[in-house]
Amino acid sequence: MKINIYLFLVIVLFPIFGFSQIKGARGTYIWPSYTPVQIPDSLKSEDAFFIENITTYDFREGFRTEIVVFKRTYINSKAAAEELSQQEMFLGRSGQMSILKARTLKASGEVLDLDGDQIIETISKKKNKYGSESVRRIQFVYPNVEVGDVIDMVYEISLDGYIFSDLLYLEDEIPSLHSR
User: Fold this and answer.
1) CB 55, CB 67: distance < 8 Å
2) Are 97 and 155 in contact (CB under 8 A)?
3) Is 106 exposed, middle or buried (0-12, 13-18, 19+ CB in 10 A)?
4) Residue 166: what pLDDT?
5) pLDDT digits (tens, 9 = 90+) for 4-35
6) What's the pTM value of the predicted model, to 2 decimals?
7) What would the mean pLDDT of 171-178 be, rounded to a whole number?
8) pLDDT by residue (tens digit) across 51-98?
9) How many CB atoms lie within 10 A of CB 101?
10) What residue spans of the chain are helical by DSSP H?
């Protein structure tokens, strides 16, 4: 009886809620050089802050938009180390993600690139009465983050059409030294 119930759930729910999973980093990216920062007095009490928070939109021929997002975050407290060591973001499913990378710059100078189970992209598809919608969930697991470490994340996505307004964020919860 239990097997029949599970089989029924798989047959009925799988077409409604489908998903796929991709693990690890991808693409080629030359990381910007990093020089340790002198923390300004205005940010010394912050748990974390962006050293760089850069989003670049490039409108290409053939009616395509390429978006590159680069975030470099300084960890300034144990609370931030705990909170930011596991992050997730959600993006619409449309578009091709050609770069997805993350790393930790340890205070000691060691560089730890994330890969495998440390970067997980899950694509969920949910049917509704009008068709279906997909969502891309990306999880980053930065191991052993400590106060004084810097975490980097970059992704590039290419979308059909010239898309701008629905992807632009004018502020973040974390303060920033350099944003554009």
Assistant:
1) yes
2) yes
3) middle
4) 55
5) 444 343 444 434 444 556 677 778 889 999 99
6) 0.79
7) 84
8) 999 988 888 887 888 888 999 999 999 999 999 999 998 876 567 888
9) 22
10) 2-13, 78-84
Cβ–Cβ under 8 Å, residues 92 and 132: no
> Nearest-5° angle of CA 164, CA 123, CA 128?
85
Strand boundaries in 42-108, DSSP class E: 48-60, 64-75, 86-92, 96-105
Q: How far apart are CA 14 and CA 6, in angstroms?
A: 11
Six token digits for residue 55: 């989003």
The total number of residues shown for the chain amounts to 180
The set of residues, in sequence order, having a beta carbon less than 8 Å from that of 93 and lying 6+ positions away, is 123, 125, 133, 134, 135, 136
101 CB-near residues (< 8 Å, 6+ apart): 25, 26, 27, 29, 113, 114, 119, 152, 153, 154, 155
